[in-house]
Specification:
Layout: H1 2-12, H2 17-50, H3 53-72, H4 77-83, H5 90-121, H6 129-136, H7 138-144, H8 151-155, H9 159-183, H10 188-208, H11 219-253, H12 256-290, H13 295-332, H14 340-356, H15 359-365, H16 370-394, H17 396-423, H18 427-454, H19 459-485, H20 489-501
Length: 502
């Protein structure tokens, strides 16, 4: 299958370009995610010792507000530019830049005047929430001022530049956030760290690319971007409601402290699996776009990507659910123990989200971003029916259970069916790629669960030994399954390594 994919790709573009650059890009993006998200997780762990769950909840409400504004005004400018078949998109950049700046100004103005009312809605009228909302509202404006040519980093698969662009800003967030907290351990340390990312990216964007935008708008280009982005906007709105609507509900229905527990659990549970999937998606979307005119090649690429995503996502999510009781008190402290059960439950969500996240790249590459919006709409309707009674009965654990239940049915079958239809793959071909990682993860989980029952050790010792032992058990199990049933993962990994070295 891999030789067939190579032959198809070579007919479309110069020899080996997509395959080799995508493989090499995967290595770069893995390093980007490892360093940026690793530094972010380390910052959260450190700040969890210095700040209170309520501080995280207050910032969480502010970020929800900002996210809503960004989602409702998102016209998918970067997505539209990456999806363009033309290699040179300079003619689009000035218009895209002006659109981004205009969007940033709109968000600043709206949130400046709405901040007191938003704080009152969440029962925080007497807190500093309104001031925080006004400060972080400048982040989209800073993002709009960035050099629009940074889109070439993804479009041309220049991931070494993307590496510098992303990791340097992540380092700025780490230094600013922790440095501020050491001087003044308040919620403003989180705010400073957040804003520093956008500020640093402005400078980096102009340092890394020599294109210089001018304040001009081409009407034809404007209409083309807006026309493509209408479904991106709709999808972005529905994605906010289904992905962050549960956060908003917890903050409103329960409290800012409860939101702090829930968001932190959600972020940690979702991070291992989906950050790896994000690496894959960032590389495969440009590659899928180059293969959009050849369904057979796209189908092969989808199945190969699904196989690799499942290989990593299943054990990470299972492992997170297993180590949560040890991880929380050791890394965060006893004050955060109420988030253990939500963290374990949300690890299941992280799994389901991780193994389907890359489907969106297929929808966008085939110029069908409407699929994202339509599927998200179904999620919203289903979640709205169950989230209130579940949260009222079981608190944040009930909220976690509600989103898992909706993802299991009907969303997971619908996601698989939709991507299978577009790529002309049979749904069972997609589901087959999940079987071996699921079995390997189940064996790993069972072995470690049994071992925990035999040995009574401290949480720190348990945490230190569980991770490496789990990795060994899972790896041996998967290799055995591949040997017995010719799954093909060893062949694919050798192929990726060969392409990276070439």
């Amino acid at each position: 299958m891999r030789d067939r994919l190579r032959a198809i790709v070579e007919k479309l573009v110069p020899r080996g370009t997509v395959v080799q650059q995508a493989a090499k890009g995967g290595v770069w993006m893995t390093m980007i995610r490892f360093l940026s998200q690793g530094s972010y997780l380390l910052m959260l762990v450190v700040l969890a010792r210095l700040l209170s769950p309520r501080d995280f909840g207050i910032l969480g409400v502010a970020l929800l507000t900002l996210s809503a504004m960004k989602r409702f005004s998102d016209i998918g400018i970067n997505t539209a530019l990456v999806q363009q078949k033309a290699a040179d998109i300079d003619e689009y950049l000035n218009t895209a830049w002006m659109l981004a700046i205009g969007r940033g100004v709109l968000i600043v103005v709206v949130l400046f005047f709405a901040a007191p009312f938003i704080a009152g809605f969440f029962g925080e009228a007497d807190s500093e929430l309104a001031a925080i909302i006004r400060v972080i509202a400048f982040s989209p404006l800073l993002s709009g001022l960035q050099n629009p040519a940074v889109v070439y980093f993804q479009k041309d698969l220049e991931f070494h530049k993307e590496f510098v662009y992303q990791t340097t800003s992540s380092f700025a967030r780490f230094v600013v956030g922790i440095g501020y907290a050491l001087v003044s351990p308040t919620v403003w340390a989180l705010v400073a760290g957040f804003v520093s990312v956008s500020a640093s990216k402005v400078a980096l964007s102009y340092a890394l690319h020599d294109y210089r935008p001018r304040p001009s708008v081409d009407r034809e280009t404007l209409w083309e971007l807006v026309h493509y982005g209408k479904w991106i906007t709709g999808s972005s709105i529905t994605k906010f409601v289904h992905s962050e609507g549960d956060d908003a509900f917890v903050g409103w229905f329960l409290s800012a402290t409860a939101l702090g527990f829930y968001q932190y659990a959600h972020r940690i549970a979702d991070m291992p699996a989906t950050q790896f999937t994000a690496v894959i998606s960032s590389v495969t979307f440009p590659a899928y776009s180059k293969l959009q005119d050849d369904p057979a090649a796209l189908k092969d690429a989808l199945l190969g990507t699904t196989r690799l995503v499942a290989l990593v996502t299943f054990p990470l999510s299972a492992g997170m659910a297993l180590i949560a009781p040890s991880f929380v008190p050791v890394a965060l402290g006893d004050e955060w123990e109420p988030m253990i059960l939500p963290l374990q439950l949300l690890s299941v969500f992280g799994l389901l989200h991780g193994i389907t996240r890359h489907f969106g790249g297929v929808f966008n590459a085939l110029d069908r971003p409407d699929y994202n919006m339509k599927l998200d709409t179904v999620r919203i309707v289903c979640l709205a029916a169950v989230i209130w009674p579940a949260t009222a009965q079981w608190g944040v654990a009930g909220t976690a259970g509600a989103i898992i239940g909706v993802y299991l049915f009907p969303m997971f079958p619908l996601d698989v069916y939709a991507v299978s239809t577009l790529t002309r793959a049979h749904p069972f071909e997609v589901l087959y790629e999940y079987v071996y990682p699921a079995v390997g993860s189940a064996v790993m989980f069972g072995v470690l669960w049994y071992a925990h029952g035999l040995v009574d050790v401290s949480p720190l010792v348990e945490l230190l030994f569980t991770v490496p032992i789990g990795a060994v058990v899972y790896t041996l199990t998967v290799l055995l399954l591949d040997e017995l049933f010719s799954w093909g993962i060893k062949r694919d990994l050798r192929y990726v390594v060969a392409e990276v070295r070439s």
